[in-house]
Amino acid sequence: MNHELLRDIRVEKGVTQEEMAKCLGYKSKSTYCNIELGVTKVSTDVANKIAARLGMNTKQKISVFLPE
Predict the structure, then answer these.
(1) InterPro entries of this UniProt entry (predicted)?
(2) What whole-number distance in Å separates Cα of residue 13 and Cα of residue 4?
């Protein structure tokens, strides 16, 4: 997973970590922050929710979520 690219896309879209956490049903932004830091791995379901919230196109999804 390309954590830096995920963060860059989120920032470019003007979405905060707090907004992402809420969208994913997390109680605090730290849980989402751990995804961007690479501490927490994401399930396919969570990856799809992130991609939908950020309006990612197919190329972005592949670049962010497929293993390097």
Answers:
(1) Cro/C1-type_HTH, Lambda_DNA-bd_dom_sf
(2) 14
